[in-house]
Amino acid sequence: MTRIKVCGITNLEDALLALSLGVEAIGFIFSESQRKISVGCARKIIQHLPAWLIRVGVFVDEPAALVEEVYRDLALDLVQLHGHEGEEYVRGLKCKWFKAFKIGTQPNLPEIKSLGRGFFLLDSAVKSEPFDWSIARELKNAGRFFLSGSLNPGNIVEALRLVEPFGVDVCSGVESFPGKKDPEKMKDFVWRIRKWDCQKLNMASSGGDLSRKL
């Protein structure tokens, strides 16, 4: 089953919608962004969420002490490092983390394999544009990853067909405006993924070719 993470959560309504749709994780952005949330607001949202919903804190080149403080304060499950954090930084980090890599035309494969450590996220280096998904396919031997970067209801099935990632991460592609999710877009996005999952499972059990059915 494809894991789904909805990022850029700024309010309880959107968090509860994600919860009702059965997504596995939500993300709170604590660095400069149109979707930045304060620790206090995030805490109020988290108080209304079940423990099984994975809570991810997103940070971009923040001091390690700050990242660790927020991680402990909110009892986050994971920290997503979305900047230029290197080997020395992550080696000393006292929390569970995974690295996001921005992919352009020539990804840094050694860095991804080294810092990715078998579980990472692939984002687009160009804002509002997906990167070449064939690159993501080439990185599958580096470990499990979340596919991100301008995903939306209109392109998610093609992304799943080409990449078959461990999970997907969506933010602006299901928004009404920065910081506010669109309920219909979120429902459509999740529905398309679950439909894909079911079709893939059915085809695998029958020995068929899923690509011919889409």
Structure description:
- By secondary structure, the chain is an alpha/beta fold.
- The protein has a single domain, classed as Alpha-Beta Barrel (TIM Barrel).
- 36% of the residues lie in helices and 22% in strands.
- The protein has an eight-stranded parallel barrel with strand order 1-2-3-4-5-6-7-8. A two-stranded antiparallel sheet has the order 9-10.
- The longest helix has 24 residues.
- The chain is globular, with a radius of gyration of 17 Å.
- The two termini are 18 Å apart.
- The C terminus is likely disordered.
What is this structure's SSE topology?
Layout: E1 3-6, H1 12-20, E2 25-29, H2 39-46, E3 54-59, H3 64-73, E4 78-81, H4 87-91, E5 97-103, H5 109-116, E6 118-124, H6 133-138, E7 143-147, H7 156-163, E8 167-170, E9 175-177, E10 180-181, H8 183-206
Parallel strand pairs: 1-2, 1-8, 2-3, 3-4, 4-5, 5-6, 6-7, 7-8
Antiparallel strand pairs: 9-10
At a glance:
The chain has 214 residues and is of the alpha/beta class.
Task: Name the features.
10 strands; 36% helix; 8 helices; alpha/beta; 214 residues; eight-stranded parallel beta barrel; TIM Barrel
Count of all domains: 1
Task: Write out the strand line-up for the largest beta sheet, numbering strands in chain order.
Answer: 1-2-3-4-5-6-7-8
CATH topology: TIM Barrel
What class do helices, strands and sheet pairing give? alpha/beta
Strand content: 15-25%
